[in-house]
Amino acid sequence: MEAKSYQTTGSTRALWSENTIDVDSTSMIECALLCLSNQQCCFASFCTNTSTCRIDTSETCCINTENVDGWRTIRRNIYLPITSTRSISIGNSMYAIIEEGATWQKANESCKCLGGKLLELETSEENEFIKDEVRTLNTGVEGYWVGGYNFNHDHDMEWLSKPNQLMPFSNMESGEPNYPAFQPCMMIFRDFDFRWGDHYCSSQLSYICEFQYQ
User: Which segments constitute the C-type lectin domain (predicted)?
Assistant: First the structure.
């Protein structure tokens, strides 16, 4: 197991909940292995004094914690939940295609919790790679949220990580964005052959998370 697969924080533990399980563990490394081998676990806690490993199975990396001496939390750097339809890689990036519907804000928060971000398509190669994958899936969804946002409510959109910069590459559908004041969130549309467009942020759509290898 490589150290880069998880990170630890001292004097804190996951709060007990219906999604947690306490098991005996001889070490923090063993506790980390227990979490990493469980598809539903992104977050665990280990207590040296009691040799207890608390496994959280809520399929999220953002959970409630409390400060407690003698405990350490263990959090995966990248976590792909069961709801991820497919995980794919190109270059130094990995992507999780998640069919579960969410608002744009919820999708953005979910990707951050998993250790990544909403997809930002910055090259033609990356864009075509993703388009080929979602065409192959052919799930019939309306489209997928990506990490573009209309910060200035004009006819240009920006990536979340670079709000003050023009997009270095664009595959925007002709006439899009067409409602910048009301549809500031960006998606790739199935009806546009997965070219880009704006949409109402409150819509429930599938989404794609992007992760960078360390």
Answer: 90-210
Q: Which helix (H) or strand (E) holds 109?
A: helix 104-113
Give the whole-angstrom CA distance, residue 174 versus residue 100: 28
SS3 content of the chain, % helix, strand, coil (to 5): 15, 40, 45
* Cα–Cα distance for residue pair 198/60, rounded to 1 Å: 28
Q: What is the pTM of this model?
A: 0.82
Phi, psi angles (nearest 5°) of residue 166: -70, 150
Measured CA distances, 154 to 150, 160, 165 (Å):
7, 16, 14
Q: Where are the beta strands (DSSP E) in the chain?
A: 6-14, 20-24, 43-47, 52-56, 65-76, 84-90, 93-102, 117-118, 143-149, 158-159, 185-189, 195-199, 205-212
Q: In whole angstroms, how far apart are CA 95 and each of 12, 73, 117, 125, 141?
A: 30, 25, 10, 14, 18
Q: How far apart are CA 119 and CA 153, in angstroms?
A: 21
- List pLDDT tens digits, range 98-129: 988 999 999 999 999 888 999 999 999 999 99
Q: If you count DSSP H runs as helices and E runs as strands, how many of each does the chain have, helices first?
A: 3, 13
- Cα separation, 52 vs 29, in Å, equals 12
- Using left for φ > 0, alpha for ψ between -120 and 50, and beta otherwise, residue 23 falls in beta
Report CA 84 to chain centroid distance, whole Å: 10
